[in-house]
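Whiteboard transcription, Tuesday session. T.W. wrote the C-alpha cells on the left side:
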C-alpha cells in the first residue's frame, strides 16, 4: 500500500515537472517568434533600401544575399530570445518551488 502511494506521488511530481517544462518551452517559442518577426522587419527595411540607393550594394548584393542577411538576423533573434526566455522561466519556477534558502544557512 505504501509503495502505491509513493509511486503515485512520484508520478504526480513528474507530471507537474513535465507540464512546467512544456509551458517554459512554449513561452520561449512564442517570445522567439515575436523577436524573429521584429528582426525580419528591422533588417529587411535597411537591406532593401540600401540595395536601391547604394551603387555598391546594388552591384554586389543579389537576391540570395539579401535573403541570407534577413533570414540570418531573424534566426539569430529567434534562438537567442527563445533560449533566454526558457532559461529565465525555468529559473523563476525553480526559485518559486525551492525551499527557503535562508533556513538552510
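and on the right, the sequence the group agreed on:
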Amino acid at each position: 500500500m505504501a509503495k502505491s502511494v509513493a509511486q503515485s506521488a512520484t508520478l504526480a511530481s513528474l507530471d507537474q515537472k513535465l507540464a512546467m517544462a512544456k509551458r517554459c518551452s512554449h513561452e520561449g517559442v512564442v517570445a522567439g517568434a515575436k523577436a524573429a518577426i521584429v528582426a525580419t522587419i528591422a533588417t529587411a527595411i535597411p537591406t532593401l533600401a540600401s540595395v536601391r540607393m547604394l551603387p555598391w550594394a546594388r552591384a554586389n548584393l543579389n537576391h540570395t544575399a539579401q535573403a541570407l542577411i534577413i533570414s540570418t538576423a531573424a534566426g539569430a533573434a529567434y534562438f537567442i530570445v527563445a533560449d533566454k526566455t526558457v532559461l529565465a522561466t525555468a529559473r523563476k519556477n525553480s526559485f518559486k518551488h525551492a525551499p527557503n534558502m535562508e533556513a538552510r544557512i
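Someone added at the bottom: Residues 24-104 form one domain.
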